[in-house]
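Extended Data, panel c. Modelled sequence:
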Amino acid sequence: MSFTASEAADSIFKVATPVLRIHSLEGPQWKRKMEKNPRDARIGPWLRANYSVLDEQAWREKGACLYLAKLDSGPVRYVGISRNGVKHRWRTSPAYDAISMNRLPEDQLFHSQCWRHIQAAAAINPRIHVEVRTVMHSALATELARLGPPLSGFLALGDDGEGMCAAVERWLCNRSEGAILSWNTAMTGRNRDA
């Protein structure tokens, strides 16, 4: 069976469990405090997310997983992996007021690769919604078998869930173009906000 990266990402997204929904971004802005590297780009300032955890069990599940982020319309914008579950990557961080640097009472949701892209999309459409889904490696293996070659070739990795997730992420990113996986700038080497 022949398919594009976009078709494969959409297929995996459909079988993945919805875990987070970002309803909007709003001010005031916040920053992360990173004393070891005060020039780190992850510091911010960032807008705050109004979000919901859609599946608490999937949010907290530990283990190797692939996770995907998608706007209301268009293709999957980001694919990533975690060996410790999706909450390890889409984490809540201690937040500080962007001006005073006083600690805020609530930690803020953040993903270092996606956040600037989400903010750019929200600047164009303030009613933006982002959905994050996760698929654990065992469920991913079932989908890879259904999709067939070449992705089913990663089933040879057997119980190496992290390796399987990483191989699928790499395969998708190496074949991305246009808006598909346009937020995967670290993996693809592209600098784009599509």
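The mean pLDDT is 90. This feature is highlighted in the accompanying rendering.
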